[in-house]
Amino acid sequence: MSNKNRASRKIRTGIVVSDKRENTVTVAIELQYPHPKYGKIVKKTRNLHVHDEKFDSKIGDTVEIMETKPISKTKRWRVIEVIERAR
């Protein structure tokens, strides 16, 4: 299958807020968008369940994640790389 026929996958950056489960971390992503009526920029936080095969990310790390096929009931994302380690 060539990449021309396949849509590009979404890539997001977020902060790990939980790493208590096996092969799974919870990542908080901050979304910014203008309010429909007033135009003010509104911030919204979304928590995503992300597959981490290598057990590489810990709480507080900044990670880059990519959308993928469904891995479980709630997991549709996987960790690409750890951008910055928590102190």
Tell me what the structure shows:
The protein has 87 residues and is mainly beta. The protein has a single domain (11-84), classed as Nucleic acid-binding proteins (OB fold (Dihydrolipoamide Acetyltransferase, E2P)). Helix content is 0%, strand content 54%. The protein has no helices and five strands. A hairpin with a 6-residue loop joins strand 2 (24-34) and strand 3.
Topology:
Blueprint: E1 11-21, E2 24-34, E3 41-51, E4 62-67, E5 77-84
Parallel strand pairs: 3-5
Antiparallel strand pairs: 1-2, 1-4, 2-3, 4-5
Which fold name is given in CATH as the topology?
Answer: OB fold (Dihydrolipoamide Acetyltransferase, E2P)
| CATH architectural label | Beta Barrel
Unreliable segments of 5+ consecutive residues: none
Q: In what order do the strands lie side by side in the largest sheet?
A: 1-2-3-5-4
User: What is the helix/strand order?
Assistant: EEEEE
- Terminal Cα separation, in Å? 42 Å
**Total strand count, please?**
5
Helix coverage percent: under 10%
CATH superfamily annotation: Nucleic acid-binding proteins
Alpha-beta content class: mainly beta
Helix count, DSSP H or I runs of 4 or more residues: 0
Overall mean confidence score, pLDDT: 93
Number of self-contained structural domains: 1
**Cα Rg:** 15 Å
| Percent in strands | over 45%
Overall spatial form: globular
The CATH C-level class name: Mainly Beta
The largest β sheet comes out as: 5 strands, mixed, barrel
